[in-house]
Structure formats: C-alpha cells, structure tokens
Design brief:
Blueprint (H helix, E strand, L loop, with lengths): L1 E6 L27 H15 L3 E7 L8 H11 L6 E4 L8 E6 L4 E5 L14 E3 L8 E3 L6 E7 L4 E8 L11 H31 L4 E6 L10 H4 L3 H6 L10 H8 L9 E5 L4 E5 L2 E5 L1 H4 L4 E4 L6 H5 L1 H10 L5 E4 L3
Helix pairs in contact: 1-9
Amino acid sequence: MRIATYNVEWFSNLFDDQNQLILDDSWSSRHDVTKRQQAEALGIVFTAMDADAILVVEAPDQNSKRATVPALEHFAEAFNLRTREAVIGFSNDTQQELALLSDPDVLTARHDPISTPDAPRFDQKFDIDLDVDERADTVVFSKPPLELAITAKSGAEVRLIGAHLKSKAPHGARNRDEVMRISIANRRKQLAQAVWLRRRIVQHLQDGESLIVAGDLNDGPGLDEYEDLFGRSSVEIVMGEEGQDCLHDPHARAALNRRLGAQPTTSRFYIEKENRYLQALLDYIMVSADLRTKRPKWHIWHPFDDRDCWRVPELRDALLTASDHFPVTMDIDL
C-alpha cells in the first residue's frame, strides 16, 4: 500500500461554489500560475504518485457554500484518479481543511475521533500551563487533526492521524519587540498543540494499535531561532524520545541527528526580500514500531533532489507549478 501526504497550496481557490474545478486562464493564488496550469499540474502529480491513500493538507474549503468531499471527488474524476473517495473530519475556518482521498478498492477510511480525559477530542479545548505560571491556559486547534480508522482489504487495521500544526505569523506587531513577543506566544501555542497530539498518540500506542501520523507539522529541528528557547521542536514532541512509544520517520531522524550539512527537504518558498529560495523539512509520515518492522520505504517527490523526478521534465515542472510543498509517500505491506 502506498500512503502519501501532500500540502497543496491554495487548493481551495481552484474550485467554484458548485465544488467544480475552475479550468481557465484566470490567475490562481500561486505566483504567476493560472488556475488551469495549477490544476493540470496537480493532476500530473497525483497520477504519478499513484498512491492508495493521500492525506491532502490545505484541502478545499468546507463552509455553508462549499464542501470539501465533493470538490476532491470532482478533482479525482477530472483526472481519472484511483483515489476517488474522500473523507473529512472536523472542518475549520481557515480555508485549509484536512482530508483523505483513497482508493475504495484497496481500503476503507472513516472519521473516528477519540476523546480521553488526558487528551480531549481535537475539536474541543485543551488546558495546559504554557508559561509555567501554575495557571492553565486553554488551547484550541485552528485546524483540528483528522482521526481516521483505516481497514485494508486484507483486513489489516491502522489508525491514521492527519495533522497541520501552524504557528501564526506575528500579525499586528508594530515593532521588533512586539514581533518577538507575539512570535513566542504563537510558537508556545503550537508546542501545546503538539503535546495534545502526542497524548493521543501515546494512548493509541499503549492500546497496541498500529498508528500513522502524517501531515505538515510546520516545524522541525533547527527551523527557527525560537527552538533553543523551548528546547524541542513540535516534531520531536510528536515523535517522542527514542525507545518506548516512539514514532519513526527517517527524514525527521536524519535531520535531528545532523544539525549541519545536507538534510532532506519537502518544501520550497521564495523569500522576496532576499531574492532566494528557502527549503525546509515540514512534511512527515511517522509510523509506530510495529509498522516499522514491515520495513516501509519513504520517498520525497522533490524535483531537484530526486533523480527520477528530475529525469521526467513534465513531472519536474508539475511539482514546481502545483504547490510550494512536495509530496511524501510511504510504501508498506499491509
């Protein structure tokens, strides 16, 4: 089985209020890319991945006028994809939903949110002392993680949690001190969300369940100047320490063990004021120890780092046109 995670930048803006693809030459929300160009590039990428299940990060919007599931299923139909059934969890108000596209001939997936006293359901509230002042702060997810119960046609059962953690930009800051204060507060909230997610992970692992945690954690070792202040990144919190109740992702482990030198990356952003591109490792597929024994194989579809992607000009160009993130896939025998 091939499982993928793919953050599609501004996917929602490619659909109209009837949840149909807009295939015209109007501008998409990606710089210098039309809606037709982005949609067709996505069709090429999804087809090339040929995954059985794709966690779509920043999936089309879910609100009173638009719906994520029909939008994704219309997208699959337009490009004749095997992954033709979609499922969504708790919607949010950011125009960036979390959803799964899957092949019903290979697996079934249903939204199955869990709640425990230690870790409430992800659309609820979580109390934690963020600043060690002996007073609990209330945290909510702007993008509640997607909890799925997956059953393969073989009968194998797996839990999958799709996540999109994000520390908001310091909007409203009027000077450097305010930028720092707001940035630290926002990062603290992101780490609290990671702790909340980690508690759910530990519960599944202690219950002996096979678990996959996938998505965009918007964080990683060495990513910003606030990491030393808090000691650990969201990635390290979610994965856990090496040993008991630990998840594994080879790219994350490589980055953690190699602070200097070449590291894997899954995204590419243009920094206009510096006239250059920044690459970062943001997207992960983490697995429980029992799944790791099945010797899964991970693959980052990076057009410059992966030889096969580079050698196919149509795919290479499509990866650059479709999004500012690149897909990550994992092949595993279930």
